[in-house]
Design brief:
Blueprint lengths: L1 E2 L11 E2 L12 E11 L1 H8 L15 E8 L11 E4 L2 E3 L19 E2 L11 E5 L4 E2 L6 H21 L6 E5 L3 H12 L3 E5 L3 H9 L4 E3 L9 E6 L4 H9 L1 E9 L20 E4 L5 H13 L6 E5 L3 H10 L5 E5 L1
Parallel strand pairs: 10-11, 10-13, 11-12, 13-14, 14-15, 16-17
Antiparallel strand pairs: 1-2, 3-4, 3-8, 3-17, 4-5, 5-9, 6-7
Amino acid sequence: MVLQAPGPADGDGPLRVVDRPDPRPGPGELLLHVAACGVCRTDLQLCEGDLAARRLPVVPGHQIVGRVADVGPEVSGWTAGERAGAMWLAWACGECRHCLTGRENLCERARFTGWDVDGGYAERALVDARHAVRLPESVDDLAAAPLLCGGVIGFRALRLSGIEPGGRLGLYGFGASALLAIQVARHWGCEVYVCTRSDTERERAWRLGAAWVGGYDDRPPVPLDAAITFAPAGEVVLAALRGLDRGGTVAINAIHLDRVPEFPYEQLWWERSLQSVANVTRQDAADFMALAAEIPVRTQTEAHPLASANDALRRLRSGEVDGAAVLVP
C-alpha cells in the first residue's frame, strides 16, 4: 500500500495498491516476510499531510512483525526463519555523539520506517539488521505489533516523566499507547489518573485499574508526580501541567503537536518541567519487550486485510478503532 501524495483518509485514499517485485536485502539488511503491521496515528498524520513527507512515494508502517525470509551480506546474529520486528527508528549512523552515548533516537542522520524508508504496509519489508527487534515467542503476531510503537514509546515516556514506583501518574488521552503504558505503571504500583473525552476510553481506564477518571477540563483529585500527554493538542499539555505537583514533569508523547497556547508562568514555576519524547532507542525496545512478556502486557487489536489499509486509517481518524488497528497481509 503506497502513499503517492498526502490526502484525506476517507476510506478510498490516499493509499494505492501497487505490485512490486520482492526486494532483495543489501549489505546489513534483513528481508522480512510480514505477518502483521500496526496502524499508528503517526501513519495517519503522514498520509494526510499533517506530518510533512520526506520521501514520496513511500510505503507507510513502522510496527512490523514478521519472519526473516532472507539475510543480506555483512549481517551477523540473524538467520532465515527467525522472528523479528521493526520499529519507527530504522537506522542511525552509530558514529555521532548521540549514538555513541546510547541516544541514537537523537541522531541527526537517523532514518525512520515508513517516512524515510519503506515500511510494513506490504507483504515484504527490508529492515536494517542492527535495528531489528527480537520478539518474545510468548506474544503472538497481532499482539506484538502495537508493542513496537505505542508500547515502546509509552515506555520511554514513562521513563522520561520520572515517575517512581508507587507514584501518582496522570495519563492525558487514552488511546493505543496509553492502554499499554497504564499496564506498566500499574505493574510498578503507581496510582494512575486518566483524563480523556471518550466515554468508551473512560470505561476502559476503570477496567485497567485507574484510580480516577475524568475529562481534560477536570483536575485530578490529588497533585500528580508526573503526567504523560498522548493527544496531539497543546491545550492538553496545559491541562496536564495544571495537574502537576511541585517538581513534576509532563512528558509530551507526540511527534506532531498543533501548538502550545500562551500560559502564565505560575503554572510552570516550582520546578515543573515539560519534556518532549523523541523516538526510541534499541535499548528501550529490548527492555520493554522483555517487560511486556513478564507482566504480561495485554493488547487489544482489530485486524484488517492489507488491502483495507485506507479503511483502517479512516477508522483511526474517526475514533472508531477499538484498541489498535493491525494490518495482516
